[in-house]
């Protein structure tokens, strides 16, 4: 019985280890191409949720369930893409050794191609916006520089992970109590 209980707890721990986790990050300080100046207080806030399903130490695009940049989830918006509007995370990878890399954005236009706009992010490169119509074209970028700071917070376990941990502790306590009642 004890062996069965230990195997159950171990399986639960392994499942919890594979559960999704959420990392949060902030980039601070960008070069504004519109004003041609460095903005030390400009920030890009983000988070991503996922699990390293293949165990290679790299969280890859296929393994994430969200990528939020300045409030927009570029994984969740992918199903909204149409012929004239595209939204999504084109590339993503994260590892402690290799850092964070992503390319995500949204863009669209009218069917005739007279008007459109877009907003996209390429880590290590820039945040870009553009819009156009027949008499107007506007582009702006906030570029990464060697002064751009980066902070990433440790992952926060998802609620399912806490539930699994709680269930495992309850089962362990129950088994210990049952064993104590039996006198052995």
UniProtKB/TrEMBL annotation:
The record's listing under InterPro entries reads:
EF_Hand_1_Ca_BS (IPR018247), Ice-binding_C (IPR013424)
Question: What span is annotated as the signal peptide, if there is one?
Answer: 1-21
Organism's domain of life? Bacteria
PROSITE patterns assigned to the protein according to its UniProt record, in alphabetical order: EF_HAND_1 (PS00018)
| Residue span, Ice-binding protein C-terminal domain | 157-179
Keywords tagged on the record: Signal
Query: By its UniProt entry, which Pfam families does this protein fall under?
Result: PEP-CTERM (PF07589)
Q: What is this protein called?
A: PEP-CTERM sorting domain-containing protein
Q: Where is the organism placed in the taxonomic lineage, from the top?
A: Bacteria, Pseudomonadati, Pseudomonadota, Betaproteobacteria, Burkholderiales
């Amino acid at each position: 019985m004890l062996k069965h209980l230990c195997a159950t707890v171990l399986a639960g721990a392994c499942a919890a280890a594979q559960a999704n986790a959420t990392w949060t990050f902030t980039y601070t300080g960008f070069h504004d191409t519109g004003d041609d100046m460095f903005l030390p207080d400009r920030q890009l806030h983000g988070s991503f949720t996922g699990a390293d399903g293949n165990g290679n130490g790299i969280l890859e695009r296929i393994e994430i369930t969200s990528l939020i940049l300045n409030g927009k989830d570029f994984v969740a918006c992918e199903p909204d893409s149409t012929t004239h509007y595209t939204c999504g995370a084109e590339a993503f990878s994260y590892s402690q050794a290799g850092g964070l890399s992503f390319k995500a954005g949204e863009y669209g236009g009218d069917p005739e191609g007279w008007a459109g706009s877009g907003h996209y992010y390429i880590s290590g490169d820039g945040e870009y916006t553009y819009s156009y119509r027949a008499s107007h074209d506007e582009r702006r970028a906030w570029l990464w520089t060697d002064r751009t700071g980066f902070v990433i917070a440790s992952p926060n376990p998802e609620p399912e992970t806490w539930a699994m941990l709680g269930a495992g502790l309850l089962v362990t306590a129950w088994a210990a109590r049952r064993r104590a009642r039996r006198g052995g």
